[in-house]
Amino acid sequence: MKPIRTAIIGFGKIAEDQHVPAIAGNPRFELAASVSRQGNGPAPNFISAEDLLASGLEFEAAAITTPPGPRFEIARLCIERGLHLLLEKPPCATLGEVEELRRLAAAKGTTLFTTWHAQHNGGVAAAKKLLAGQRLKSMRITWHENVHKWHPGQQWVFDAGGFGVFDPGINAFSVATAILPAPLFVREGTLYFPANAHTPIAAELSFTSPAADGPLSASFDWRKTDGEEWTILIETADGAHLKLLDGGARLQLNGDEVAASGIGEYPDLYATFADLIDRRESLVDAEPLRLVADSLLVSKREMVDAVTV
Protein backbone atom coordinates (compact mmCIF):
# COMPACT_ATOMS: atom_id res chain seq x y z
CA MET A 1 0.00 0.00 0.00
CA LYS A 2 1.33 3.42 -0.96
CA PRO A 3 2.46 5.46 2.06
CA ILE A 4 0.40 8.50 3.05
CA ARG A 5 2.66 11.45 2.32
CA THR A 6 2.34 13.79 5.28
CA ALA A 7 3.63 17.30 6.00
CA ILE A 8 4.29 18.65 9.48
CA ILE A 9 3.13 22.26 9.76
CA GLY A 10 4.63 24.08 12.73
CA PHE A 11 7.90 22.27 13.26
CA GLY A 12 8.99 22.61 16.89
CA LYS A 13 9.97 20.46 19.85
CA ILE A 14 6.84 18.27 19.91
CA ALA A 15 7.13 17.66 16.17
CA GLU A 16 10.80 16.74 16.41
CA ASP A 17 10.46 14.61 19.54
CA GLN A 18 7.20 12.81 18.78
CA HIS A 19 5.74 13.28 15.30
CA VAL A 20 8.87 12.61 13.25
CA PRO A 21 9.69 9.31 15.04
CA ALA A 22 6.04 8.20 14.91
CA ILE A 23 5.86 8.85 11.15
CA ALA A 24 9.22 7.14 10.57
CA GLY A 25 8.11 4.11 12.59
CA ASN A 26 4.84 3.59 10.73
CA PRO A 27 5.08 2.19 7.17
CA ARG A 28 1.69 3.70 6.37
CA PHE A 29 3.23 7.20 6.44
CA GLU A 30 6.03 9.08 4.74
CA LEU A 31 7.26 12.51 5.80
CA ALA A 32 6.79 14.75 2.76
CA ALA A 33 7.72 18.22 4.02
CA SER A 34 7.77 20.55 6.98
CA VAL A 35 6.83 24.14 7.74
CA SER A 36 8.95 26.22 10.10
CA ARG A 37 9.39 29.97 10.14
CA GLN A 38 12.93 29.38 11.40
CA GLY A 39 13.69 27.08 8.46
CA ASN A 40 14.86 24.28 10.73
CA GLY A 41 12.39 21.55 9.72
CA PRO A 42 13.17 18.46 7.64
CA ALA A 43 13.64 19.16 3.95
CA PRO A 44 11.86 20.32 2.01
CA ASN A 45 11.12 23.03 4.56
CA PHE A 46 8.75 25.92 3.87
CA ILE A 47 8.44 29.17 5.81
CA SER A 48 4.63 29.17 5.82
CA ALA A 49 1.70 26.87 5.20
CA GLU A 50 0.73 29.09 2.28
CA ASP A 51 4.15 28.52 0.69
CA LEU A 52 3.79 24.77 1.15
CA LEU A 53 0.32 24.69 -0.41
CA ALA A 54 1.46 26.84 -3.34
CA SER A 55 4.57 24.74 -4.00
CA GLY A 56 2.93 22.04 -6.10
CA LEU A 57 4.38 19.35 -3.82
CA GLU A 58 2.25 16.22 -3.78
CA PHE A 59 1.07 15.03 -0.35
CA GLU A 60 -2.18 13.76 1.11
CA ALA A 61 -2.14 14.67 4.80
CA ALA A 62 -0.80 17.16 7.30
CA ALA A 63 -0.10 17.21 11.01
CA ILE A 64 -0.61 20.73 12.36
CA THR A 65 1.56 21.27 15.42
CA THR A 66 1.53 25.06 15.66
CA PRO A 67 0.36 26.90 18.80
CA PRO A 68 -3.46 26.93 18.86
CA GLY A 69 -3.90 30.57 17.77
CA PRO A 70 -3.13 30.27 14.03
CA ARG A 71 -4.26 26.67 13.70
CA PHE A 72 -7.81 27.26 12.48
CA GLU A 73 -6.85 29.29 9.42
CA ILE A 74 -4.09 26.82 8.48
CA ALA A 75 -6.47 23.89 8.89
CA ARG A 76 -9.15 25.62 6.84
CA LEU A 77 -6.75 26.12 3.94
CA CYS A 78 -5.62 22.50 4.15
CA ILE A 79 -9.17 21.17 4.11
CA GLU A 80 -9.90 23.31 1.05
CA ARG A 81 -7.02 21.45 -0.66
CA GLY A 82 -8.54 18.09 0.30
CA LEU A 83 -5.89 17.15 2.85
CA HIS A 84 -6.49 14.78 5.74
CA LEU A 85 -5.61 16.53 9.01
CA LEU A 86 -4.17 15.51 12.36
CA LEU A 87 -4.39 18.38 14.87
CA GLU A 88 -2.15 18.52 17.93
CA LYS A 89 -3.84 19.34 21.20
CA PRO A 90 -5.63 21.63 21.80
CA PRO A 91 -7.20 21.39 18.34
CA CYS A 92 -8.03 25.11 18.08
CA ALA A 93 -8.22 28.22 20.20
CA THR A 94 -12.03 28.11 20.53
CA LEU A 95 -14.92 25.66 20.42
CA GLY A 96 -16.46 27.54 17.51
CA GLU A 97 -13.35 26.97 15.40
CA VAL A 98 -13.42 23.23 16.12
CA GLU A 99 -17.05 22.96 15.08
CA GLU A 100 -16.42 24.87 11.86
CA LEU A 101 -13.50 22.61 10.95
CA ARG A 102 -15.72 19.61 11.65
CA ARG A 103 -18.31 21.00 9.23
CA LEU A 104 -15.75 21.85 6.55
CA ALA A 105 -14.08 18.43 6.69
CA ALA A 106 -17.43 16.65 6.46
CA ALA A 107 -18.43 18.75 3.46
CA LYS A 108 -15.09 18.10 1.73
CA GLY A 109 -14.99 14.40 2.60
CA THR A 110 -11.59 14.57 4.30
CA THR A 111 -10.49 13.09 7.62
CA LEU A 112 -10.19 15.42 10.62
CA PHE A 113 -8.53 13.93 13.71
CA THR A 114 -8.38 16.06 16.88
CA THR A 115 -5.74 14.27 18.89
CA TRP A 116 -5.34 14.01 22.65
CA HIS A 117 -2.08 12.15 23.09
CA ALA A 118 -2.59 11.41 26.80
CA GLN A 119 -5.67 9.33 25.94
CA HIS A 120 -3.32 6.91 24.16
CA ASN A 121 -1.25 6.14 27.26
CA GLY A 122 -1.10 2.52 28.36
CA GLY A 123 -3.25 2.78 31.49
CA VAL A 124 -6.13 4.80 30.05
CA ALA A 125 -8.01 2.06 28.20
CA ALA A 126 -7.74 -0.26 31.21
CA ALA A 127 -9.07 2.45 33.55
CA LYS A 128 -11.99 3.12 31.22
CA LYS A 129 -12.89 -0.56 31.22
CA LEU A 130 -12.72 -0.79 35.02
CA LEU A 131 -14.92 2.30 35.46
CA ALA A 132 -17.60 1.32 32.93
CA GLY A 133 -20.99 1.35 34.62
CA GLN A 134 -19.51 2.37 38.00
CA ARG A 135 -20.53 5.18 40.30
CA LEU A 136 -17.84 7.45 41.69
CA LYS A 137 -17.33 8.25 45.35
CA SER A 138 -14.54 10.72 44.62
CA MET A 139 -11.97 11.90 42.09
CA ARG A 140 -8.87 14.04 42.57
CA ILE A 141 -6.76 15.22 39.63
CA THR A 142 -3.28 16.61 40.36
CA TRP A 143 -1.39 18.02 37.37
CA HIS A 144 1.66 19.91 38.62
CA GLU A 145 4.81 20.73 36.63
CA ASN A 146 7.37 23.48 35.98
CA VAL A 147 6.54 25.90 33.15
CA HIS A 148 10.23 26.84 32.87
CA LYS A 149 11.12 23.24 32.06
CA TRP A 150 8.34 22.50 29.58
CA HIS A 151 7.93 25.93 27.92
CA PRO A 152 11.30 27.70 28.17
CA GLY A 153 11.16 31.09 26.50
CA GLN A 154 7.63 30.49 25.17
CA GLN A 155 5.88 33.68 26.25
CA TRP A 156 2.87 32.85 24.05
CA VAL A 157 1.54 30.44 26.70
CA PHE A 158 0.79 33.48 28.90
CA ASP A 159 -0.66 35.59 26.10
CA ALA A 160 -4.41 35.68 25.38
CA GLY A 161 -5.32 32.41 23.72
CA GLY A 162 -2.19 30.68 25.03
CA PHE A 163 -4.12 28.53 27.57
CA GLY A 164 -1.62 29.01 30.43
CA VAL A 165 -1.69 26.11 32.87
CA PHE A 166 -4.54 24.60 30.86
CA ASP A 167 -1.98 23.74 28.18
CA PRO A 168 -0.93 20.72 30.30
CA GLY A 169 -4.18 20.64 32.28
CA ILE A 170 -6.17 19.87 29.14
CA ASN A 171 -4.28 16.56 29.04
CA ALA A 172 -5.81 15.71 32.40
CA PHE A 173 -9.23 16.68 31.08
CA SER A 174 -8.68 14.45 28.04
CA VAL A 175 -7.90 11.45 30.23
CA ALA A 176 -10.78 12.12 32.62
CA THR A 177 -13.33 12.47 29.81
CA ALA A 178 -11.99 9.27 28.23
CA ILE A 179 -12.29 7.09 31.34
CA LEU A 180 -15.31 8.41 33.25
CA PRO A 181 -18.65 6.66 32.72
CA ALA A 182 -20.56 9.98 32.37
CA PRO A 183 -19.84 13.59 31.37
CA LEU A 184 -17.93 15.97 33.63
CA PHE A 185 -19.14 19.52 34.35
CA VAL A 186 -17.27 22.39 36.00
CA ARG A 187 -19.07 23.64 39.10
CA GLU A 188 -16.69 26.32 40.38
CA GLY A 189 -13.02 27.20 40.61
CA THR A 190 -10.28 29.70 41.32
CA LEU A 191 -7.78 30.67 38.65
CA TYR A 192 -4.44 32.26 39.58
CA PHE A 193 -3.17 34.84 37.08
CA PRO A 194 0.35 36.28 37.19
CA ALA A 195 0.27 40.07 37.28
CA ASN A 196 1.81 40.23 33.79
CA ALA A 197 -0.16 37.40 32.13
CA HIS A 198 -3.49 36.94 30.38
CA THR A 199 -3.72 33.22 31.17
CA PRO A 200 -3.57 31.42 34.53
CA ILE A 201 -0.50 29.77 36.04
CA ALA A 202 -2.59 27.64 38.42
CA ALA A 203 -6.18 26.48 38.90
CA GLU A 204 -8.26 24.79 41.60
CA LEU A 205 -11.51 23.34 40.24
CA SER A 206 -14.48 21.31 41.37
CA PHE A 207 -16.89 19.33 39.20
CA THR A 208 -20.15 17.46 39.08
CA SER A 209 -21.08 14.37 37.08
CA PRO A 210 -24.23 12.27 36.75
CA ALA A 211 -22.06 9.27 37.71
CA ALA A 212 -20.68 10.78 40.93
CA ASP A 213 -22.01 10.89 44.50
CA GLY A 214 -19.05 12.66 46.09
CA PRO A 215 -16.38 15.32 45.52
CA LEU A 216 -14.66 15.68 42.17
CA SER A 217 -11.75 18.13 41.95
CA ALA A 218 -8.62 19.12 40.07
CA SER A 219 -5.46 21.05 40.89
CA PHE A 220 -3.34 22.40 38.04
CA ASP A 221 -0.11 24.25 38.84
CA TRP A 222 2.85 25.37 36.73
CA ARG A 223 4.96 26.40 39.72
CA LYS A 224 6.24 22.98 40.83
CA THR A 225 10.03 22.87 40.73
CA ASP A 226 10.83 19.39 42.07
CA GLY A 227 9.56 17.15 39.27
CA GLU A 228 6.15 16.45 37.80
CA GLU A 229 2.99 14.99 39.27
CA TRP A 230 0.37 13.87 36.78
CA THR A 231 -2.08 11.71 38.69
CA ILE A 232 -5.79 10.94 38.79
CA LEU A 233 -7.13 9.24 41.93
CA ILE A 234 -10.62 7.72 41.77
CA GLU A 235 -12.60 5.83 44.39
CA THR A 236 -15.71 4.03 43.20
CA ALA A 237 -18.89 3.60 45.21
CA ASP A 238 -18.06 -0.07 45.77
CA GLY A 239 -14.69 0.81 47.33
CA ALA A 240 -12.24 0.26 44.48
CA HIS A 241 -9.28 2.65 44.33
CA LEU A 242 -7.85 3.52 40.91
CA LYS A 243 -4.69 5.57 40.50
CA LEU A 244 -3.46 6.73 37.12
CA LEU A 245 0.14 7.89 37.26
CA ASP A 246 2.60 9.55 34.88
CA GLY A 247 -0.19 11.11 32.84
CA GLY A 248 -1.95 7.78 32.32
CA ALA A 249 1.10 5.69 31.47
CA ARG A 250 0.61 3.59 34.62
CA LEU A 251 -2.48 2.31 36.43
CA GLN A 252 -2.83 0.92 39.93
CA LEU A 253 -5.93 -0.84 41.23
CA ASN A 254 -6.17 -1.05 45.03
CA GLY A 255 -2.43 -0.45 45.21
CA ASP A 256 -1.48 -3.18 42.71
CA GLU A 257 0.06 -2.37 39.35
CA VAL A 258 -2.13 -3.16 36.34
CA ALA A 259 -0.20 -4.26 33.29
CA ALA A 260 -0.15 -1.48 30.70
CA SER A 261 -0.74 -2.17 27.04
CA GLY A 262 -0.39 -0.34 23.76
CA ILE A 263 2.37 0.86 21.46
CA GLY A 264 2.85 4.33 22.93
CA GLU A 265 1.08 7.67 22.64
CA TYR A 266 2.21 9.00 19.28
CA PRO A 267 2.64 5.67 17.48
CA ASP A 268 -0.96 4.92 18.46
CA LEU A 269 -2.07 8.37 17.27
CA TYR A 270 -0.69 7.71 13.81
CA ALA A 271 -2.09 4.17 13.70
CA THR A 272 -5.50 5.66 14.48
CA PHE A 273 -4.99 8.39 11.88
CA ALA A 274 -4.23 5.81 9.16
CA ASP A 275 -7.33 3.81 10.11
CA LEU A 276 -9.52 6.92 9.98
CA ILE A 277 -8.15 7.85 6.54
CA ASP A 278 -8.76 4.32 5.26
CA ARG A 279 -12.37 4.50 6.43
CA ARG A 280 -12.79 8.13 5.31
CA GLU A 281 -13.99 9.04 8.79
CA SER A 282 -13.21 11.83 11.24
CA LEU A 283 -12.72 11.76 15.00
CA VAL A 284 -13.46 15.14 16.55
CA ASP A 285 -13.45 15.30 20.34
CA ALA A 286 -14.01 18.76 21.81
CA GLU A 287 -14.84 17.71 25.40
CA PRO A 288 -11.43 18.57 26.93
CA LEU A 289 -11.54 22.00 25.28
CA ARG A 290 -15.12 22.47 26.52
CA LEU A 291 -13.93 21.90 30.10
CA VAL A 292 -11.23 24.55 29.69
CA ALA A 293 -13.78 27.03 28.35
CA ASP A 294 -16.22 26.23 31.15
CA SER A 295 -13.46 26.64 33.75
CA LEU A 296 -12.72 30.12 32.43
CA LEU A 297 -16.44 30.99 32.47
CA VAL A 298 -17.32 30.02 36.05
CA SER A 299 -14.10 30.49 38.06
CA LYS A 300 -13.01 33.31 40.31
CA ARG A 301 -9.78 35.15 39.47
CA GLU A 302 -6.89 35.87 41.84
CA MET A 303 -3.66 37.72 41.08
CA VAL A 304 -0.23 36.28 41.93
CA ASP A 305 3.39 37.31 41.34
CA ALA A 306 4.53 38.14 37.81
CA VAL A 307 6.18 35.37 35.79
CA THR A 308 8.92 35.16 33.18
CA VAL A 309 9.55 32.15 30.94
Q: Topology of this protein?
A:
Blueprint: E1 4-9, H1 13-24, E2 29-35, E3 45-46, H2 49-54, E4 61-64, H3 71-80, E5 84-87, H4 95-108, E6 112-114, H5 124-131, E7 136-144, H6 147-150, H7 166-179, E8 185-194, E9 202-208, E10 216-221, E11 229-236, E12 241-245, E13 250-253, E14 256-258, H8 265-279, H9 287-298, E15 300-304
Parallel strand pairs: 1-2, 1-4, 2-3, 4-5, 5-6, 7-10, 8-15
Antiparallel strand pairs: 7-11, 8-9, 9-10, 11-12, 12-13, 13-14
Question: Can you give a write-up of this model?
Answer:
- The protein is an alpha/beta fold.
- It has helices at residues 13-24, 49-54, 71-80, 95-108, 124-131, 147-150, 166-179, 265-279, 287-298; strands spanning 4-9, 29-35, 45-46, 61-64, 84-87, 112-114, 136-144, 185-194, 202-208, 216-221, 229-236, 241-245, 250-253, 256-258, 300-304.
- It has 2 domains: 4-114, Rossmann fold (3-Layer(aba) Sandwich); 121-261 and 293-304, Dihydrodipicolinate Reductase, domain 2, CATH 3.30.360.
- The protein has a 9-stranded mixed beta sheet. Strands 3-2-1-4-5-6 form a 6-stranded parallel beta sheet, sandwiched between helices.
- A hairpin with a 4-residue loop joins strand 12 (241-245) and strand 13.
- The model has no long low-confidence stretch (mean pLDDT 96).
